[in-house]
Amino acid sequence: MSQPLRLGIAGLGTVGGGLLRLIETHATRLSETAGRPIAVAGVSARTRAKARATKLEGMSWFDDPVALAASPSIDVFVELIGGGDGTAKAAVEAALAAGKAVVTANKALLARHGAELARLAERYGTTLNFEAAVAGGIPVIKTLREALAGNRIRRVYGILNGTCNYILTKMQDEHRAFADVLKEAQAKGYAEADPTFDIGGFDTAHKLALLTSLAFGTRPAFDQIDVEGIEGITQADIEAAEDLGYRIKLLGVALKTESGIEQRVHPAMVPQHSAIAEVSGVTNCVAIDGDSVGNLLLVGPGAGASPTASAVMSDILDIARGGAPYPFCVPADRLQPYTRATLGRHQGAYYVRLAVYDRPGAMAAIAGRMGERHVSLESIVQRRPRGAQIGINARGQPGEPTPVILITHETTEEAIRAALDAIHRDGNVSEKPQMVRIEPL
Ligand code: HSE
User: Are 40 and 9 in contact (CB under 8 A)?
Assistant: First the structure.
């Protein structure tokens, strides 16, 4: 039998634990597929004395993940520490400089430093694989890098964060409060160590930056993404969306426009009967529009120990079999600079929720502000929350704010934002207007 492929795994949290279990339970199948045994030679984690489902017997323990990364006792460094800088970056750099192949699930690290790390991998004649960094178990990196390499991609978008999709689904199906569902997602191991990365849209943005780079051949440009999270989405929005024939999803969208590449992360209304609306719970999806292939939709588990470990293992097996693709499809020096499209020019329809003081002239003033900016309204509904009685407004008191839902015709981001700022300033609403884009699919 050939020599084993020796792994050094840094980070034994949800994904690291899942990977150890997979290696233990699938040993025979893995060695058949790899053509050699897969062995865990060394591990490193924050706490050594911790109860773990898998025993660490036979594996060398390293307090310092950077030392593990460069150790002559390993062939492949598997980075599951997380974080865009600091230890994870130092360890990956050390591994590449020592000529080790690297497998990482670290989207934050790659979104920030991907091009530079890819260059390092090329310089030292090794490889950097990151299938698990985007959409957990969905094989989207390989799909873009390999299966669709012959296409010009027009647009790539999707539901890229399991925690947010889980929260929005439960808020809709079970009418539960945001905070309550978030706690559940954390307990199930879906959420990041700091869940504001999930709900604030940054985790989606990290993943989108990688998809954009692979789809359009540009350097990852995380800091050029317009990011909005789901913190502002209320039960009132979820109910209104349902009544209007939509569902609210947190989307990451990247597309080519005349002025450059548009990258945005935000909650969006998607038609209730679209395939993407059906993607519920922790499930992710990635839609890719290619000129040759047409439209693809990949759907699958986007987070959790086992699906993410499955993606990490596919990268390890590629290395065992001798595959060494360019991390971002083309040599790092051929990645193009990213040119950002002007989001103000984004064209689309919008959902707006206003808490309007119930007094004469308020609606006329609001419609006037929309008209000044040439925003045309498709519908206006004065809406009581479900369960409220006819004849009284949201809080049941005359003169108190009442929810009004507007749907606009297609307009620009610039125009709708300017109109809503003016409406807020006029004082006919009790809070900042809520705005959600209606995404054409
Ligand atoms: N926190 C992430 C999610 C994990 O909820 O999708 C996978 O990146």
Answer: yes
What residue has token string 């000129």?
A: 291
**Total count of residues recorded for the chain:** 441
By annotation, the residues acting in catalysis are: 207
Question: Which tens digits make up the pLDDT trace of 213-223?
Answer: 999 999 999 99
- The answer to whether 436 and 248 have CB atoms below 8 angstroms apart is yes
Count CB-CB contacts under 10 A for residue 193: 10
pLDDT band at 189 (very low <50, low <70, confident <90, very high): confident
- What gap in Å lies between CA 136 and CA 140, rounded to an integer? 9
pLDDT digits (tens, 9 = 90+) for 48-72: 888 788 888 889 999 999 999 999 9
- Ligand 1 centroid–CA 182 distance in Å is 12
Domains and CATH numbers, the chain: 5-133 (3.40.50.720), 140-301 (3.30.360.10), 343-438 (3.30.70.260)
The finding on whether 162 has its CB within 6 A of some atom of ligand 1 is yes
Between the alpha carbon of residue 266 and those of residues 74, 156, 197, 387, 437, the distances in Å are 41, 15, 13, 29, 8
* Most informative mutation of 163, 211, 280 for ligand 1 (most atoms within 8 A of CB): 163
* Rounded distance from Cα 284 to ligand 1 centre (Å): 9
Q: Whose CA is nearest to atom 1 of ligand 1?
A: 191
Chain centroid offset of residue 157 CA: 10
CB 42 within 8 A of CB 60: yes
- Specify the residue with its C-alpha closest to ligand 1, atom 7: 303
Ligand 1 atom at shortest distance from the alpha carbon of 192 = 1
CA 184 to centroid of ligand 1, rounded, Å: 14
